[in-house]
UniProtKB/TrEMBL annotation:
Protein name, per record: AAA ATPase
Annotated ranges, domain DUF6824: 8-92
InterPro entries with a match to the protein in the record: AAA_16 (IPR041664), DUF6824 (IPR049227), Hybrid_Histidine_Kinase (IPR053159), P-loop_NTPase (IPR027417), TPR-like_helical_dom_sf (IPR011990)
Residue span, Orc1-like AAA ATPase domain: 475-656
Compositional bias ranges of the Low complexity kind: 108-144
Organism lineage: Eukaryota, Sar, Stramenopiles, Ochrophyta, Bacillariophyta
Superkingdom, natural source: Eukaryota
Xref: PANTHER family: HYBRID SIGNAL TRANSDUCTION HISTIDINE KINASE G
């Protein structure tokens, strides 16, 4: 039952719901986003609503959307409905605000008109009228400024008759100030202080100093003239509120500055939005004008004219603030652009050519402002002194040597924000003559860069703090970020990215950028990091991602969605989901049934099963997820083999999917063989490759500038030194900055004797970070980051240093369970504190990060507690580990492992178990002297290896078994025989799975040579045989099998013709036993007999390719053992083998028993629930074609393939796929569809290295191509770019591959008949195998028999001298069809009827033949065999043509062509069309 929490959002009506805390918080979220929502496009609005809902659901704790059901109980709202509700709420708030703004605008317009009319009545001066009407009331009270010339404001001039109307169209500056748009965002001023704070002074001085004096610094002239415009960034939009437009109007720039300051100063108490607008506008103008000055300088230098004229329309010397006018565009008639304000500069030919050098002009930008700040100004306004010129045009500008010295106290007195202080002080320093500092500006270009940076990144970028915090922004990676953005946006068709580089270069930080992109579009992000020590349970890291995904889905999904999801998972995963539950404890939340089934999967198949189950689970979860999912797998160079294999499967199963983005990071200087193999295996996927190098000097400067909150121009000298010392490694750089600036000292560093510390410190007088670059250059630093961190660690106290050592030994993270256990073990090691307290202090010092898990208890079934500590970077762990000697490392590992292991057993905690064993194994056998203790640890490894095998990580299991054997002493086979033989047995079994045949042989031979009895050898005997079979080393397998049979004392295997009587005798016995009696036989007890039956069944699959004649002998012997000693896990296979052998005898009674035992094998498997019978469906295939429609058999093979995938039995899954293709061919499925299936099947066979099956499938694929494209395709070098031509494929299959040879002969026969190549038919060797009892009568062979029978009757008519021979063969095959038709007419009726029609045709019984042809056609049509229908039509046409019935023949041929086309045998249809056209001429098709 759901109970709402304070964070949930409740849907409904009423005061209680309205006042619910979650609803109030929700309304705040809506209010904060409404403006952005209103300005967004339709698609962006949907994405925005989805993102808001997703963030709420993903918050900690999750905030659900709830409503009451019809029963009055609270229930979760579906995601789609929550998004719809959020969109509606955003629209409502935006609409209400728009209405309110309209009402305010109407009131305001009335007030302004009244104020303007009043102003008109008291003034007769046009200039005064314009100025006063353009100012707010506060600004109008200021002393009027009289422009030096009457033509400065041409748009303001008008006659008195038009004056009233003109003033009605003048835009009040207050409106201008509040409606500046299309400008970069700046830091909100609310966070910088209230009224009369540094912000007010900043605006004052920015306008009086920076903006005004940037103009004056050009050396402006006091003359008038005409000029072009330069575009800036101010536009009025106030008139648009009522749908009207604004007249274009010019306002003096200095008047705009002056009135703006007053307006924002008076309105500051009401909020900072207006000041933000002013700051943005003023910076934008300053940037544009500075850029204009630079361009004027460049054009002056490039000018070749000698008459005083310049290429630029506005000479540099003519730029003056008095000549600068803000021109407001008519936004109705002119669509606003990115920059839609104009500054107009009025000037004439300059009267002076010497505006001063660059230092003079830069200093002039701020000199006048400093005079005023010092209280010595003699002018009424700083605006009056903006020109450096006196009234005398010939007076040269003031030089720096004549100006006042730089007074830092003046800037300090102004209490300006630090960015402004920096700019002003650096401008003032330009006036120090020979004493100018390195930080002084040297060009307007540097000034322009700083101004732009201040505008684009805001004030917060440069706000100083005495606490040094290392920047977490991505610096110096512009190209990589651009590539990453392109990849994520799928511009290159990428499904993910692999980020490589050395340790500490910032791979994880770059990967985190993808998270930001994902969240912006409302997607989900999941991340995991592999550990260097691999100290967690197998697949735990990938499992963590899936557990989080499951928990999120279970939290946000509605009950109906969860029910639907559970049903989908049960259908896809079946009982095998119990295996997945082993590593995904959260799975029952979305699939309750998975925890209610106990299921065992054979070890060989479990790893494959796990990969399939993970992929299928992910596929189904994705089908319920609308947003994008990004997955990050960090430090994959330390991933275990099972995890890497699973990652490959996930990539493959999602290839082409646009809703999943995979990200992997690894160190390219620590690539292991397993990682290299994995990289090669995924090279075919569309993954972007990004290699990170160390930062360039510019990248380092960005990093340092961000960290110290200074302009990059100022930090460049320091950055060059740090780049040289760190090589540009970001981690190293951050560590050095922390060491040098964390406390203002660097005493722990090995430095020169003169170094006293304080290399980087915060200056309280300058309110910014400063440094002693000479001291930093003299520091002798280690060459790598690890050595540097080790040096830093020497400063720690003994307790903290020991805590760091403990964490380094345990691994990259420590959970609360581990901390509690080790705290009890290490109590004596600490003085008055606990391990948790020490780790917390280490986190405060920046060595560790502390996390608190807030997931619900049901989500944390395997979580080792709620608290965990992780190293900030694995290089820090590496440094802490290197701090210990090898002996200390071993002692700590052994101590911690032995402390953890008992608790892991008591708590049944796999994570603790593997961590404990890993700690012990890292210590190694050298850490233990006592033999009994070594034996105990060997047993611990044995148990842990078995557990790893149960979780499908056989690479880990194999390693653990090997570790266990390393603890065994020389006398282990004498003193610890049981443990020794079990370890070697288990290691041999794991070696089969990891495909290490040499290890299998090594451990098997060790067991065979030291086993006390034959029974103790049985497991290794079977393991070695299976290894040879899986490696397709069939010759060796045959020899070893015969050796095994001999050792067991078994009779020699005999071919079918020698045991046929014994088989019939056994059949007589079996007929006397009822079905239930056979299914209820006792359970086999003898270990040796069980092993023998398993070995027989394992090897029977191989005989299919080597010598099928021996299979009946194995079937007979296994059935004898079953009758004598009972049933075992392989008994379903025994029944199927026996059924297959009976079908070869061919009598009606034997076929009936064959079908009976085929059905019994399936029933027995269902009763036993055995997972050891993967090949059962393949065996039953040879029988059940005589018991059920071929189409139904195809569906069974599809189910078999699914079961094989679920259980991880890849061999039988792919083999079932092969049979699906074959049965589809037999049933007449369209060949074009079948061709695609065959290609996919071939690809899977190649991936699994199933070369024997690949040969058979390749021959089959060549047959499909020959029927579609023509027989010549079979002789091509390759077919469909997936296989060799037919001849090469046959050669690749091997001359001893009986199944391949038999398939080739059958395909040749069918092709020769369909293309009417009867000459080659007469010499076909296939006819020699018709009566061979050793060859089972499986469906494909039955189809070949059908074509062989048709060919025999045709040859009997054509080859008169061999008529009897061919009639006899035809009669034999007809008898088989008649026999099989008695069991299932669906499959054989049409075939039997057509063979009878051909026989009657041979015998001259034309009436019977004609009738039988029609019956065959109808039967094929009724039973859905389109290809057989086409063949019957064609043979009927030839019959009628021979009889002289041309119309009937033509009709039959036409029908045959259509059937062939529908079947997809286009080349066969074309062959018949050609024949018909040449035969019938005008009667053609």
């Amino acid at each position: 039952m759901i109970e709402p929490t304070s964070g949930d959002i409740l849907l409904g009506r009423g005061v209680r719901i309205n006042n619910h805390p979650g609803n109030e918080a929700y309304r705040e979220t809506i209010s904060a986003n409404a403006a952005t929502y209103a300005a967004s496009t339709k698609s962006d609005k949907t994405s925005m609503s989805t993102k808001i809902v997703t963030e709420l659901l993903n918050s900690n704790p999750p905030r659900r959307f709830l409503e009451k059901s019809e029963t009055g109980k609270w229930q979760e709202v579906p995601l789609k409905r929550a998004v719809t509700k959020t969109s509606q709420a955003l629209r409502d708030v935006a609409r209400d605000r728009a209405k309110a703004a309209g009402a305010v605008a109407a009131t305001k317009s009335s007030t302004v008109s009244s104020f303007q009319q009043t102003t008109n009545n008291v003034s007769n001066n046009n200039e005064s009228e314009l100025a006063s009407s353009s100012l707010t009331p506060a600004a109008a009270a200021m002393p009027s400024y009289h422009p030096p010339a009457p033509n400065l404001y041409p748009l303001a001039e008008s006659n008195n008759d038009d004056n009233s109307q003109q003033q009605q169209n003048v835009l009040p500056l207050e409106g201008l100030q509040q409606n500046v748009s299309n400008l970069p965002a700046a830091q909100p001023f609310e966070s910088l202080g209230g009224a009369n704070s540094a912000v007010d002074l900043f605006l004052e001085e920015l306008s009086s100093g920076l903006l005004d004096n940037i103009l004056t610094a050009s050396g402006g002239a006091d003359v008038l003239g005409n000029s072009d415009d330069i575009s800036l960034g101010i536009v009025d939009r106030s008139a648009l509120a009522d749908g009207g437009g604004a007249m274009q109007q010019e306002v003096a720039l200095f008047e705009w500055i002056k009135s703006s300051k007053m307006a924002y100063s008076s309105s500051h108490g009401l909020g900072g939005g207006g000041m933000t607008t002013y700051l943005e506008s003023a910076l934008d103008i300053a940037i544009k004008l500075t850029d204009y000055i630079i361009k004027s300088d460049e054009e002056k230098e490039d000018s070749t004219s000698g008459d005083g004229a310049f290429n630029h329309s506005v000479p540099l010397e003519c730029i003056s603030v008095e000549r600068t006018v803000v021109c407001i565009k008519d936004v109705v008639s002119m669509a606003p652009q990115e920059d839609d304000t104009t500054v107009v500069i009025k000037c004439q030919t300059p009267s002076r050519d010497d505006p001063g050098d660059i230092g003079d002009r830069l200093y002039a930008v701020v000199e006048e402002m400093m005079e005023e700040a010092d209280g010595n100004a003699t002018k009424t306004s700083s605006l009056d002194s903006m020109n450096l010129n006196s009234d005398d045009d010939n007076c040269p500008p003031k030089k720096r040597q004549q100006m006042k010295p730089y007074l830092p106290a003046q800037l300090e007195h102004l209490d300006l924000p630090q960015p402004v202080i920096t700019i002003l002080s650096n401008l003032l320093e330009c006036g120090q003559g020979e004493l100018v500092s390195d930080e002084a500006y040297t060009s307007f270009g540097d000034l322009l860069v700083d101004l732009k940076l201040l505008r684009t990144e805001g004030l917060s970028r440069f706000l100083q703090s005495p606490d040094l915090e290392i920047s977490d922004r991505i610096c110096g990676r512009e190209e990589e970020i651009e590539l990453l953005n392109s990849s994520f946006n799928n511009k290159s068709g990428s499904q993910g990215v692999i980020i490589t580089g050395a340790g500490g270069v910032g791979k994880s930080r770059i990967a985190a950028h993808i998270f930001e992109l994902t969240r912006k579009e409302g997607g989900l992000v999941f991340a995991t990091k592999f550990n260097q020590n691999q100290d967690v349970s197998p697949l735990a890291q990938i499992g963590a991602i899936f557990n989080d995904l499951i928990d999120l889905f279970a939290t946000v999904a509605s009950p109906s969605t969860l029910l639907s999801l559970s049903n989908d998972l049960e259908n896809a995963l079946g009982i095998h989901a119990a295996l997945l539950h082993e590593v995904l404890p959260s799975l029952p939340r979305i699939m309750p049934s998975c925890s209610q089934v106990m299921y065992h999967v054979d070890q060989v198949n479990m790893a494959n099963s796990m990969r399939f189950l993970f992929c299928k689970l992910f596929e189904i979860l994705l089908s319920y997820q609308t947003g994008r999912i990004t997955m990050l797998f960090d430090d994959v160079q330390w991933a275990d083999a099972a995890s890497l294999s699973l990652l490959s499967s996930l990539l493959q199963s999602n290839e082409g999917a646009k809703r999943v983005y995979f990200t992997s990071c690894y160190r390219d200087n620590e690539v292991s063989d397993s990682l290299l193999a994995w990289l090669q295996s995924i090279s075919g996927f569309s993954l972007e490759q990004i290699k990170l190098e160390s930062l360039t000097p510019n990248g380092v400067n960005q990093f340092v500038s961000e960290t110290l909150h200074l302009f990059p121009r100022l930090t460049r000298p320091l950055s060059l030194v740090l780049h040289k010392k760190t090589g540009g490694n970001p981690l190293f750089l951050g560590q050095i900055l922390s060491a040098l600036g964390g406390s203002g000292r660097a005493s722990s560093l090995t430095s020169s004797p003169s170094t006293k510390g304080g290399e980087i410190c915060f200056s309280l007088s300058r309110r910014r970070w400063t440094w002693d670059i000479e001291k930093i250059e003299d520091l002798e630093l280690p060459d790598d980051v690890v050595s540097f961190i080790v040096t830093e660690m020497k400063k720690l106290s003994a307790d903290l240093l020991f805590g760091l050592k403990v964490a380094a030994c345990i691994g990259s993270r420590m959970t609360s369970d581990v901390i509690d256990i080790l705290s009890a073990e290490l109590t004596a090691a600490f003085t008055g504190t606990t391990l948790a307290d020490i780790l917390h202090k280490l986190a405060q010092k920046g060595f560790l990060t502390e996390h608190v898990c807030s997931r619900k208890a049901e989500c944390c079934a395997t979580s080792s507690g709620s608290l965990r500590f992780e190293f900030v970077h694995d290089k820090i762990q590496e440094a802490a580990y290197q701090f210990m000697s090898r002996q200390e490392q071993r002692l700590n590992h052994m101590r911690f492992g032995l402390a953890l292991y008992p608790q892991a057993i008591n708590k049944s905690n796999d994570e603790l178990l593997f961590m404990a064993i890993n700690q012990i194994n890292v210590a190694g056998p050298e850490s233990i002297v006592d033999g009994d203790q070594k034996h105990i640890i060997a047993g611990l490894n044995l148990n842990a290896g078995k557990r790893a095998g149960e979780r499908s990580d056989y690479q880990t299991a194999f390693a653990l078994f090997q570790h266990g054997m390393s603890y065994l002493e020389a006398d282990c086979w004498t003193n610890h025989y049981g443990t020794s033989i079990e370890l070697f047995d288990s290691a041999a079994q794991a070696a089969v799975v990891v495909n290490d045949l040499e290890a299998v042989t090594l451990y098997s031979n060790a067991v065979n040579s030291r086993a006390k009895c034959f029974d103790d050898k049985l497991n290794c005997i079977r393991v070695k045989l299976k290894a040879l079979i899986h490696g397709e080393r069939y010759g060796e397998a045959m020899g070893y099998f015969l050796e095994i049979v001999k050792d067991f004392g078994e009779p020699a295997l005999l071919p079918m013709h020698e045991i046929q009587e014994d088989l019939k005798a056994m059949n007589s016995i079996m007929k006397g036993l009822a079905d239930e009696t056979l299914l209820s036989l006792l359970t086999m007890k003898q270990k040796r007999t069980i092993a023998l039956v398993k070995i027989y069944c394992d090897f029977s699959d191989v005989l299919l390719f080597i010598d099928p004649s021996l299979v009946p002998s194995i079937a007979l012997r296994c059935m004898q053992l079953t009758v004598q000693e009972g049933l075992c896990s392989k008994s379903p296979i025994v029944f199927a083998l026996y059924a297959k052998s009976l079908s070869s005898i061919g009598t009606s009674n034997d076929i009936g028993e064959s079908v009976r035992f085929g059905r019994l094998s399936k029933t027995l498997q269902e009763r036993m629930g055995s997972s050891d019978c993967g090949s059962l469906d393949m065996m039953v295939y040879y029988v059940m074609g005589l018991a059920q429609p071929f189409q139904a058999l195809t569906e069974e093979f599809k189910l078999s393939m699914k079961t094989g995938e679920q259980s991880g039995d890849v061999f039988n899954a792919v083999a079932s796929y092969c049979l699906i293709c074959l049965m589809s061919y037999i049933t007449g499925e369209p060949l074009t569809h079948l061709r695609r299936k065959s290609i996919d099947c071939i690809v899977q066979m190649k991936e699994q290295n199933m070369m024997a099956f690949l040969g058979i499938q390749s021959l089959f694929h060549s047959q499909l191509a020959a029927l579609i494209d023509g027989p010549q395709i079979a002789d091509a070098e390759s077919v469909d770019d997936v296989i060799f031509g037919e001849k090469k494929a046959l050669a690749a299959a091997g001359k001893d591959n009986f199944e391949a040879l038999s398939s080739y002969e059958a395909h040749q026969l069918v092709r020769a008949f369909l293309y009417r190549k009867f000459d080659s038919l007469s010499s076909s060797s296939f006819f020699e195998t018709i009566s061979d009892p050793t060859i089972p009568n499986e469906p494909f062979r039955v189809m070949a028999f059908f074509f062989a029978g048709l060919a025999s009757f045709h040859l009997a008519r054509e080859a008169k001298e061999e008529e009897k021979k061919w009639m006899k063969i035809g009669d034999t095959l007809l008898e088989k069809m008649e026999c099989w038709n008695k069991f299932i007419s669906w499959n054989f009726q049409s075939k039997m009827l057509l063979l009878k029609a051909e026989k009657m045709y041979c015998l001259g019984e034309t009436e019977s033949a004609a009738s039988l042809y029609e019956q065959s056609i109808k039967s094929a049509h009724d039973h859905k065999f389109i290809h057989e229908e086409g063949i019957a039509h064609e043979l009927c046409g030839h019959f009628h043509l021979e009889m002289g019935h041309r119309l009937e023949a033509l009709e039959s041929f036409n029908s045959s062509v259509q059937c062939y086309i529908n079947w997809g045998a286009l080349a066969v249809a074309r062959r018949l069309e050609v024949f018909v056209k040449s035969t019938f001429c005008s009667e053609s098709l």
